Amino acid sequence: MKDPLNEVGKITLIKNRNKLNYLILIFAFLIGVGSIYYTNLIVNQLKHREQMQIKLFAKTLETLAGDNSGFNDNVMLLFEEIVVANETIPVIVANRDGEPKIHKNLKIPSELNSEQADLFLKEEIENMRDQYEPIVIANMNDQGEVFNYEYIFYKNSSLLNQLQYYPYVQLSVIAIFFILSYLAFSYSRAAEQNRVWVGLAKETAHQLGTPLSSLMAWVEYLKADPEYENKDITRELDKDIKKLELITSRFSSIGSVPVLQEEHIFEVIRVSINYLQTRISTKVKINLHPGDENLKVKINKPLFDWVIENICKNAVDAMSGVGIIDINVEKSVEGNVIIDISDTGKGIPKSVIAQIFQPGFTTKKRGWGLGLTLVKRIIENYHQGKIFIKSSEAGSGTTIRILLNG
Ligand SMILES: Nc1ncnc2c1ncn2[C@@H]1O[C@H](COP(=O)(O)OP(=O)(O)O)[C@@H](O)[C@H]1O
Ligand SMILES: [Mg+2]
User: pLDDT tens, 80-99?
Assistant: First the structure.
């Protein structure tokens, strides 16, 4: 029978979210490229116009100089007028020895004396030369002989410079705004998820509590009856009640701030896998490799057992019920406790590694995709540890690593 929720509910949700993220990213990229491209267009037009303007000055000057058979004071005056009319483009007119004669739209620091100002202008001439070749004006006399040269140095106006950087500044401001709002959004989403987890877990523990205590009372009643005292039914009921108690304690631990206690980690894992071993396929062997038996680490036992159980169950699924699970525990150089759980299963494709801890991600027909979400939550939120896929090879297996604070 098809389970309608299982069929449509889970992966589609994640796939759609990823698609949407890509779309937003592509859209943002297009806006960025578009606005830079457009500004560049304007910048180039403006550049062209500024160059034309300067060339026009030069042309005028040249014509005037030619007509007047000499670079006399009148021409100079006229030229100054033209230069003054230019309000934006920094220009320096220099003679053939590179001595600045007129300048415009350059801020000379007021504390400089005239000698230093001269030096400042000369440096400025070098800067300008880097940007544009100076325009040379030949002054000719009546006979058409060149008797003098003038040089017009210029550079981009500050308006043009600002315009060039404007889209980058604008985009950075927008990017910062988006990053901040994304952080705020994911923070509030995480807070909401927290409330759901905690509320649901508490409620479950609470609901299980009532029938459980009633069941316990009934078993005590049976035990008191000599006819049932040593019967299988009483023992089996006792076992099931223990299991129910374990589940209740897990749910109530995850629904409250769990108490962490120093435990012998090898012993905890050994008990956990002994219990698991009896409940999984006999063709799966779980090996706990020997190590420092005295290694202690602060954990919450019911929750940590849940982690081991979930990871091992996934491993069993990945191996289709046949294979070996190896567990290695050791202390790292930094003093953390490393727990590696390896299986010989089908591995996790690279394309989904980033998703397997997300709620709802599963590749199984009857999976809910909550196991690893829970595991991650227990390790990271309740133990301040880390969990990640250390390695995974298609067809040969997966190693999951847990890091706990030693
Ligand atoms: N050891 C593993 N080997 C291969 N795939 C794994 C392993 N552990 C987890 N996965 C993948 O991660 C998915 C999510 O796991 P989980 O959160 O436990 O949900 P579920 O077990 O319900 O599918 C699984 O469906 C599986 O595709
Ligand atoms: Mg699972």
Answer: 777 667 788 898 989 888 89
Pocket residues: Cβ below 6 A from ligand 1: 310, 314-315, 318, 343, 345-348, 356, 361-364, 367-373, 398
pLDDT tens-digit readout, 133-156: 998 887 777 777 777 888 989 998
Ligand number with the minimum distance to the CA of 362: 1
Residue nearest to atom 8 of ligand 1 (CA): 314
| N-to-C CA span, the chain | 48
Query: Tens digit of pLDDT for each residue in 192-234?
Result: 988 988 899 999 999 999 999 999 999 999 889 888 888 888 8
Q: Identify the pLDDT of residue 60.
A: 77
Spell out the residues 6+ positions from residue 374 whose beta carbon is closer than 8 angstroms to its own: 254, 306, 310
Taking residue 158's Cβ as centre, other Cβ atoms within 10 Å add up to 13
388 Cα to the center of ligand 2, angstroms = 15
Could you tell me the domains of the chain? 29-156 (3.30.450), 262-404 (3.30.565.10)
> The whole model's pTM is what?
0.65
CA–CA separation, 370 and 105 (whole Å) = 68
Could you count the other beta carbons within 10 Å of the beta carbon of residue 9? 13
Q: Look up residue 331 and give its amino acid.
A: K
- 366 phi/psi in degrees, rounded to 5: -110, 30
Laid out side by side, the sheet with 386-393 consists of 284-288, 323-331, 337-342, 397-404, 386-393
> Of 56, 31, 33, 35, which Cα lies nearest the Cα of 163?
35
Nearest CA to ligand 1 atom 24: 362
Alpha-carbon distance 208 to 189, whole Å? Answer: 29
Residue 384 and residue 406 in contact, taking contact as beta carbons nearer than 8 Å = no
pLDDT band at 287 (very low <50, low <70, confident <90, very high): very high
The H-assigned helical ranges of 230-325 are 232-254, 265-277, 301-318
Reported as a single tens digit per residue, the pLDDT across 118-133 is 999 999 999 999 999 9
Ligand positioned closest to the Cα atom of 400: 1
Per-chain residues with Cβ under 5 A from ion ligand 2: 314, 371
Nearest alpha carbon to residue 75 among 87, 93, 91: 93
C-alpha separations of 340 from 313, 331, 386 in Å: 15, 11, 12
Cα(381) to centroid(ligand 2), Å: 19
